[in-house]
Amino acid sequence: MHSTVEDRTLLPEHRAEIAELRAFLDKAPQADEPALLRGPDGSAHSLPSEVYEALMVVVRALSEGKAVTVAPVNTTLTTQEAADLLGVSRPTFVKILDEGGLPFSRPGRHRRVLLADVLAYKEKRRTQRRRGLDELVELTEDADLYDA
Questions:
Q1: Gyration radius (Cα) of the chain, Å
Q2: How far is residue 66's CA from residue 22's CA, in Å, rounded to a whole number?
């Protein structure tokens, strides 16, 4: 057993079993009791809600044929990794850094950003886009541009 937390990428190798698990989880009713994890020796342990939710996210992604990377939030990313996560080009991401959009460090020649900061930036951007779309819909409705 490892004593340190490390990044781990999971590939959808057991597609049939994952599909069955997703179908089971999708049908499971919400319960007041926590989910249980049963070990190979038969012992059971209740799962905290955040662990259960993480497992649900992993199962959903793997069932869709996507790879999943599990990483601690304090993980540092290269500018290319961060750009890929945000869905922008590396030069665009570097411009975001240069404009003060995200904090970064420069342990050597290359910049590094914290995964937590990139995820927070991504959520902030999503919220701003959603707000902008809501305002656009409101303006369109106010101007009576929708057909009845």
A1: 21
A2: 14
Q: Which residues of 49-60 are buried (b: 16+ CB within 10 A; e: fewer)?
A: eeebeeeeeebe
79 neighbors 110 (Cβ within 8 angstroms):
yes
pLDDT over 60 at 3, yes or no: no
pLDDT of residue 1: 34
From 137, 4, 145, 1, select the one nearest 74 (Cα to Cα): 4
pLDDT at residue 59 in the model: 92
- b/e 106-137 (16+ beta carbons within 10 angstroms → b): eeeeebbbbbebbeebeeeeeeeeeeeeeeee
Can you give the pLDDT at residue 5? 54
Could you give all domains of the chain from N- to C-terminal order, each with its CATH number? 8-70 (no CATH), 76-142 (1.10.1660)
Q: Look up the pTM and report it.
A: 0.53
What SS3 state is found at 36? strand
> Crossing angle of helices 115-142/79-86, nearest 10°?
30
Mean pLDDT on 42-70: 89
Lowest mean pLDDT among 83-92, 112-121, 128-137: 128-137
